[in-house]
Amino acid sequence: MEFRTPVTIPDPPFRIEPLEPVLFVGSCFADNIGQRFREERFPVTVNPFGTMYNPVSVLHTIEKLPQIPRVVFITLGTNHVYRLKETGEIVDNCQKRPQRLFSEEELSLSETVNSLKAMVSVLRSHTPDVQVVFTVSPIRYAKYGFHGSQLSKATLLLAVDQLLRDSSLSANQSSLTYFPAYEIVLDELRDYRFYKEDMLHPSAQAVEYIWQQLVAHYFSPRAKQFLQEWKPIKEALAHRPFHPESPEYQRFLADAKRREEELLERWK
Question: Where would I find the H helices in the chain?
């Protein structure tokens, strides 16, 4: 008897290689997954101008970047934006200024799609062979009301789907993929034990499960081999002894750091 409904994850047309640079831009879910890549010693860039939740703010970040790696993850959190009344500009951060200075709006489906298209255009102008992975954050927004939160996510999901089906992008369509982090949490895990105490954010266990699915489908065999070799060294470096100042532990730590340096040099 099956007690869950596993989400089907299509294999992408590319694979992430060992120690490959990766860019993450988007909501705090991008921060979570990007941090996991960093822990595995991948040279990642994560939200260099702060966490961005809506498509326009994500676009603003991408437009500021001087370099784009081959692999980019874009995590969309909401279609809600804040517009500065004085200028009409959509801002990325209200910078603790009074709420009365801003109006909150919702991007339409077409506006969201146009922002995604602009992202792809900018990314390809920097790196023609870029592989863009879109995700929708599973984090729910209680401040919208749960129905409002679902409507916001629906707009994002529809926009990404429309983008992936757009015939005008067909020349490089295989470079755009969707990773179903949202569906994994809401449809496969589907239990409050996979949420933090606020019942809104995925727990560490849920993020770990998503990481495992990402590795299984998006990592090359060589990248998976690197993770296997890195795991015991990572565990050694994370070990916390009762007497960290002891000569025995210092020798243990020095040996682990030496093994790390050798591993990273060998997999460059």
Answer: 28-39, 55-64, 109-126, 146-165, 181-183, 204-218, 221-238, 247-266
pLDDT digit string, tens, across residues 129-185: 999 999 999 988 888 888 988 999 999 999 999 999 987 765 566 799 999 999 999
Q: Determine contact, residues 267/18, Cβ cutoff 8 Å.
A: yes
CA–CA separation, 40 and 19 (whole Å)? 9
pLDDT band for position 93 (cuts 50, 70, 90): confident
The answer to whether residues 44 and 155 touch, using CB atoms and an 8 Å cutoff, is no
Question: Residue 189 has what DSSP assignment?
Answer: I
Which pair of structure tokens corresponds to residue 20?
């490959």
Distance CA 124, CA 121 (A): 5
Contact 15, 223 (CB under 8 A): yes
User: How far apart, in Å, are the Cα atoms of 42 and each of 10, 104, 140?
Assistant: 23, 37, 28
